[in-house]
Amino acid sequence: MSDLAVQAELGLGARRLAARLPRRIGIAEGLAAALALFLVVAALAPQLVAPGNPLAIDPLSAFQSPSAGHLFGTDESGRDIYTRVIHGAGNSLLIGVLATAIGLGFGVVLGTMAGMLGRVVDFSVNRVLEVLFAFPGLLLALLVIVIYGPGVATATLAVGLSTAPGYARIIRSQLVSVRSSPFVEAATVQGLTPWRILTRHILPNTLAPLVVLATLGIGQAIVWATALSYLGLGAQPPAAEWGAMLSAGRTYITSAWWMSFFPGLFIVLTAVSATALGRAIERRMRHA
Amino acid sequence: MHPTGNPRTRRTLIAGATLTVAGLLLTACTAGPASTTADKPVVGGTLTYASGDAEPDCLDPHVGGNYPQALASTQFLESLVSRDTEGAIIPWLASTWVEGEDGLSWEFTLKDNVFFSDGSPFDAAAVEANIAHLQDPATGSSTGYLALAKVTGTEAVSTNVVRLTLSEPDSALLESLSQPWLAMEAPSGLARGQEENCAAPIGTGPFVVKSWVKQDSIILVRNDSYGSPPADAAHDGPAYLEKIVWRFIPESASRYAALQAGQVDVIDNAQPDTIVQAEQGDSIRHLDAPRPGASNRIELNSSIAPFDDPQVREAFILSANIDDGVASLFQGTTKRSYSALSSVEALAVDRKDLFGYDPKAAGKLLDAAGWTERDPDGYRTKDGKRLSVRFPISTNQSIPAEQSLFEQIQATAKETGFDVRLTPLDLGSWYGALGAGEYDAVSAPYTKVGPDVLRILFHSDGITPAPSGYFANHAQVNDPALDALLTEAGRESAADKRKALYTEAQERVLEGFYILPLYDQQNHYLLGANVEGVRALPTVSTPTFSDAWLNG
Amino acid sequence: MLRLVAARLGGAAFVLWAVATLTFFAVRLIPGDPAEAILGGPGSQASAEAMASVRAEYGLDQPLFVQYLAQLGRLATGDLGRSYALKMDVAPLVFGQLGGTLVLAGLSLALAWVIALVLATWSTRGGRLAARVGSGLEIVAASLPHFWLATALIVLFSIWLGVLPPISTVGPAGLVLPVLTLAMPLAGFLGQIMREPLLAALESPFVLSARARGEGPRGIRWTHAIRHAALPAISLSGWAFGSLISGAVVVETVFARPGLGRTLLNAVTVRDVPVVVGVVLVVAVAYILMTLATDLASRIADPRLRPAP
Prior knowledge:
The structure holds three protein chains of three kinds. By secondary structure, chain A is an all-alpha fold. Chain A contains eleven helices and no strands. Chain B is an alpha+beta fold. In chain B, the strands form eight sheets. A seven-stranded mixed beta sheet of chain B has the order 8-9-10-1-11-21-12, with helices on one face. In chain B, a hairpin with a 2-residue loop joins strand 15 and strand 16 (385-386). The longest helix of chain B is centred in the last third of the chain and has 17 residues, at 400-416. Chain B starts with 45 loop residues before the first strand and ends with a strand. The model of chain B is unreliable at 1-37 (pLDDT under 50). By secondary structure, chain C is mainly alpha-helical. Chain C is 76% helix and 0% strand. In chain C, helix 5 packs across helix 13 (273-301), helix 6 packs across helix 8 (173-202) and helix 12 runs antiparallel to helix 13. Chains in contact: A-B, A-C, B-C.
């Protein structure tokens, strides 16, 4: 998912744009934060917001449209979709967070190597990244799935691996620009040890943007991971996972739109709030 | 040497029933008022068919032999005989046939003046070539190969009479030959080699394969010199339609939406909710053609724990709430089955009394079988081992509603203490799991006309894999008494004795709790408002467009 | 310039070789015997003789390095091997499907550009509120998963309104929904990229002087600003192409449209390794060519980019 390359591009843009925008918390930012908080609560303690059992069936009340009793309606086995969507937040967010962590982990290692270990390593890592970039988007993920077979773990790994080159490239360029910045040069002139420069000056200035990147990345990772589940290559029904729910719902799309609508809505909301939050954090850090 | 079959598709077999079976094979039900313009067929036009089945990897149904191949090849290949809706064998490419006194030889007289679409004649030599092709291991036939198991020789008595010799009497021979998987192809086509023949088999049928773009569509054009319809066809001579575009649209919702939008004219594998919608309106019509042979059922692997204990099998069956699920998921488009056989089989034995939903009784049975403890998750255990049921699901063979039903069974059986582990798999991995014996429960469709399907599914011979690797006795029933009953029934030609034998055999299977019957094998077609004259062949319920036309 | 082109081409050749090598060895990681996979997977329970003959036929009994060299040799001549499941050569299959997918991707890219431009110009012209609404729309659009958007469009336009076909087979009408599905999220991304340079360009001296000359605001935007706004987005066409191909996997499946994406997904589902590798290689080649072209084009167009960063 070289979406990260774009995210970086966007980040640069937003950074410059930020100067033009007011710095108080906007309505959109507030909404995004509230939504993110809700999703985190849903993921960590779903029982607080949806006390039911996401796997409890009730065949005789299958395919009910949204109502007061079933806020988001029921699915083909009479399971409550609201309960499943809320309980699915944990699965879906976990996949997104893990995939991002995997991608970021590889990205940090590769990016730091390229940015810090001299020209030869930089050259080699860049060639590796170029090769990985030649498997755009889902392609690398699908290749991983062909090798290791479908499933939640593979899908997570697949999405993580395919985001890694994007992270690596951004981290590398961040490191390079920080290293050549005036204050690092000044520190070098002052005779600080390279280790001190790395830990005191370079890393803090590189890691902060990582928070932004990770936030932005989680949204996209969730979209990609749910896409794999939707294609039948990730989580499988009856697991309460948004992509798998959508996949089950598509059969009934002509008669029970709510089965697909609400899980999809939550994917979109999650991605939107992650993006909006990432941007907001970034803006704040620029001005801090 | 050659790969057999398409691992993505249904393995279906059809073979014999007796001539005397008089079952209602096919129930066609049309919703909405009959079209008023239906009287005069319109000549010309292109019909688009959207199949939800897998795309075949070979259009020659001799190779492998599965249902997607049968669906397509019904349009361009024809068999020696067919069946009518009463179950009687009727002439098709053969006009008459005689069984020898000892039951060890059959003579078929072929229709005169029948030609393959490349102009070569259909004659006794062609029949010989086809049977040789089916029996050649290099062809990789599984369905046709098995159906001809008792055929030891063929001989062209004259240009239009062919004699088959058998190793033992086979009352199912005619039904075997009625199968689309034993259809007659031009020897000139077969001679081209498998690759070329797979791309465009040459037959005598109403349409001809013009082109096949893989992953896209098959183009079938009218055979203008056609003149060999089965005896129950509505008209003789070439088809009305000029062309059929045969598409593959795996998404059921897209398929239905395309039909609604008029982008396609006929769809198969219609899902319950779309059938209900279609029946509420009056533009789309519904053709319900359940497949013959076995009912859809869950087979319990009786060779290993926990289902080697009949009490545990019975407990599982009693702990699964099927009726509510069938009602909600299938929305009245099918009925619950309590039989090992399809409801279209006259000899089917129904035992509703055995297959109720009774969690209490199930619990008692499990207690008696020693599964008395419960672990923290609520599952029963015995000697520290959890009562788990490995249930691999073939996502290619179980429609979404069926997969949902399995999820419901998982949920209801959990209350009694079963840990049902559903694993959706692609067909290759699913065969792998079955071949390795890594399953406790499984559901596999099986199409075959007549009660002889019982022999395939429950005779202990079916535990050993066939050369193709497939084995049909998933319940791994190994009961010498049952074997004897089934073998005897297979050779018995007297109708009443045969019925008694098959009834006894079915009782043994059902009372042994080897299977949990669900419903008939679903086979629903939806037809656009302007489509007329389509019917499902009473052999294995594939649609034929020989008599079909499109109203303007 | 010539040296630059040569260097870039050399780099592309290296990447191609590496991609081919990587896929060759990655595929060896697949558990199970390739000979068995060729014979129909574990379900086929092929005989030892059949396996041996397949091994000999496909050269699987050769040392790995020999197999690798043979594979490179075949690839160099455009031979992508033979599909396990479809029983046909991969090259004609993949190249046969390529056209449809390129049409889909090309139209989607074009539409995404139009949507992004319209949205960006509208929202930069309309003051602070428009800017916020515009950027909000872009974020939402960029977050829309293809599979959900496709389903929503089918429900809306095919099932409820009945105006557009739900499957994309032949004819231009069938392309509308798939193209919309792919274009909307991409437009969100492109719009976000174009917004900032557009604002910057609008405040640049030459736009101000143009305004002073009395050119209307519309004329200014379309002639000067957009050219600047488009540059960073153009440099991302390679990325956009990759994203569209990924999207095509979903979109072609939902709309039953023949193409590379659907072929790839089918192959992944049945683990038809040669087809997966074939599609991956062809997409990689296309991606490399695309990046190469945009890279060279932008270097020629914008002399500032010539010294490599």
